Amino acid sequence: MTRHADYPIDSLYLNRWSPRAFSDKKVSRETLYTILEAARFAPSASNIQPWRFIVAQTEEELATFSEFIAPGNRVWTDNNVPAFILLLADKYRPNGELNPYYAFDAGAAWQSLALQASQLGLVTHALGGFSKDKAREVLQIPDQYEVLTLIALGYQGDKNRLPKELQEREAPNDRRPLSESIVSFK
């Protein structure tokens, strides 16, 4: 499927999507850090930068992360994804007050890293299908951090590596028209 925008936008936005098929090619530390560096420069309220990243790349780290990935996602993540990034956000401001923008700001960091990965020829897939509680337990994440999403990172691979039911879904999906996203509540 080729995506089409209703208005002129950079092709980066049209070409970025979330595949499940990854190649065997490893992600170098320099490439990973370049992607995380882009996330570091995401905008944040009061410049608090609440996002934190836990990275898995070694066989041991990937095995640890697989402990909290839902079985439906392990069908495609196990022995397929060369790197994971667990996105967390510190829920509190430096003065100890709740930061009401922590998730919004961490979302900006996610978008920045996804677009930087795409610029470098890599793909990302954010997973909701994992146990946040188990991730917190296994990785000993303090309560002040909200576990937000797990991001698969790597180079796109052949969809034939996936189970048949996922091969059919392995294509960019479309978006609703912009006119349906602009609303008025008066």
How would you explain this protein's 3D organization?
The protein is of the alpha+beta class and 186 residues long. It has a single domain, classed as NADH Oxidase. The protein has eight helices and four strands. A four-stranded antiparallel sheet has the order 1-2-4-3, with helices on both faces. α2 crosses α5 (102-119). The longest helix is centred in the middle third of the chain and has 18 residues, at 102-119.
Percent strand: 15-25%
Share of residues in helices? 25-40%
Number of strands: 4
Q: Look at the helices and sheets and give the structural class.
A: alpha+beta
User: What summary fits the major beta sheet?
Assistant: 4 strands, antiparallel
Rg, please? 17 Å
Give the CA-based shape: globular
Quote the CATH topology. Answer: NADH Oxidase
Q: Main sheet: which strands, in order across?
A: 1-2-4-3
Q: What is the level 1 CATH name? A: Alpha Beta
H and E string:
HHEHHEHEHEHH
CATH level 4 superfamily:
NADH Oxidase
Low-confidence stretches: none
End-to-end gap:
37 Å
Can you tell me the number of structural domains?
1
Average per-residue pLDDT, rounded, comes to 95
In short:
This protein has 186 residues and is of the alpha+beta class. The chain contains eight helices and four strands.
Labels describing this entry:
globular, four-stranded antiparallel β-sheet, Nitroreductase family protein, oxidoreductase activity, Nitroreductase-like, alpha+beta, Nitroreductase, 186 residues, NADH Oxidase
How are the SSEs ordered, and which strands pair?
Layout: H1 11-15, H2 29-40, E1 51-56, H3 59-66, H4 71-77, E2 83-90, H5 102-119, E3 123-127, H6 132-139, E4 145-154, H7 164-167, H8 178-181
Helix pairs in contact: 2-5
Organism: Alicyclobacillus acidoterrestris (strain ATCC 49025 / DSM 3922 / CIP 106132 / NCIMB 13137 / GD3B)
Keywords: Oxidoreductase
GO molecular function, one term: oxidoreductase activity
